[in-house]
Amino acid sequence: MKKKLLFSIIGGIIVLMVGLAFFIQFQISKIKEAEEKPEIEESQSLEEIVGIIMEAMRKEDLSVCDKLKSKERKRQCLDFVLGSKALTERNIKLCQEIENENRRRTCEDDVILVQAIDAKDPILCDKIKDKFKMELCKKKIPSLK
Predict the structure, then answer these.
(1) What span, in angstroms and rounded, lies between the C-alpha atoms of 22 and 123?
(2) Is residue 50 part of a domain?
(3) Is residue 99 part of a domain?
């Protein structure tokens, strides 16, 4: 019984870390994409920007975003930190504070995915808007039982 619980906990942690890695990678790609937009004037290097955002996400500390000079980058940072906190805390309400619609939707789907896997409840998977994640959710849950 203890082994099964231990494996469930380890499995949950692994799923959380993989989900967080995908989330971070997606967010970094969005930062690079946003960098190409001419309306954002950069007074900081991409490495510095990514470093600050990663620090803020790792610490789950919104105040770290204040190190960014661009208002747009600060907003992105705040969105990423809220998404990270929402995933860690499994709190979908934090996603609703995310300003960018795409990041908000991604956050909500990721939180629902983790909640469904934690609860081993495939019905929760139906609430996921992204079809790929919904299918991943439905495939992952039977393997946990």
Answers:
(1) 23
(2) yes
(3) yes
